[in-house]
Amino acid sequence: MSTFGERLAEALASRGPLCIGIDPHPQLLTAWGLGVDTDGLEKFSELCVEAFDGVVAVVKPQVAFFEVFGSAGLEVLERTVAVLRGSGTLVLADAKRGDIGSTMDAYARTWLADESPLCSDAVTVSPYLGFGALAPALDLGARTGRGVFVLAATSNPEGGQVQNARLEDGRTVAQAMVDEAAARNAGADRLGSVGVVVGATLAQAPDLRELNGPVLMPGVGAQGGTADDVRRLAAGNLKAVVPNVSREVLRAGPSVPALRDAVARTVEQFAFLQD
Ligand SMILES: O=C(O)c1cc(=O)[nH]c(=O)n1[C@@H]1O[C@H](COP(=O)(O)O)[C@@H](O)[C@H]1O
What we know:
Blueprint: H1 4-15, E1 19-22, H2 26-31, H3 38-52, E2 58-61, H4 64-67, H5 70-86, E3 90-97, H6 101-112, E4 122-125, H7 135-144, E5 147-153, H8 160-163, H9 173-185, E6 194-198, E7 215-217, H10 227-234, E8 241-245, H11 247-250, H12 256-269
The protein binds orotidine-5'-monophosphate.
């Protein structure tokens, strides 16, 4: 069985270093001439799949925009994930789950167990109930060859209140999360399967050199992060950085060729990550 890290490394090398978000904001549904309802959600997702499937390395559906429509929205998400995965495009479910014990275990099984209708290649998780509380997801991912992206230093301005706080040993909380993820990746020869999330909007990133795993960098475009920011924050860890862009590309829709052009222009901006 290949690991998520191995499959991701291959996808980044062959398709370019980019994760595109499927974020069906109400404003985008309207701008695409679609209803803010489950039919609109379904059409939006189908157009995204047509534009991105087989083209980008990773597609990241933002689960909240599906959940808001209840069970019908989740059915759209199930179909979207299944089509993308069925054709070999890596799906990172952006669910940002974090809980304790058996509840975390249920979240882990939802996103990472073979038999789950929402099973994805990887999921985002929040370690802010304690990194150790993520063990069910990390262990299941290790067993099933799937990935987990741990929020470390997020792109929102409020995140620093918690993430920049210092531990007794002087490290920031964000750095401690990166170090915990690094421990999980020890021994992986290509790229570990435990990633971290570091916002492209930040003044400073945690030290990522020992991570041996992927770094998802959201915040490019609509939140003000640029390719230069990604270059600066990635320092020395270029091969493992995966910028995420959602609205900046989605605004080019609903035309599939226009979405693909926007993807091509964005991948081009990040060509330096493969140097
Ligand atoms: O985990 C994430 O993907 C994430 C972490 C973070 O720190 N900041 C962040 O913006 N995201 C997600 O990345 C996407 C960014 O969307 P845009 O700002 O439209 O590119 C949204 O789905 C966010 O929920």
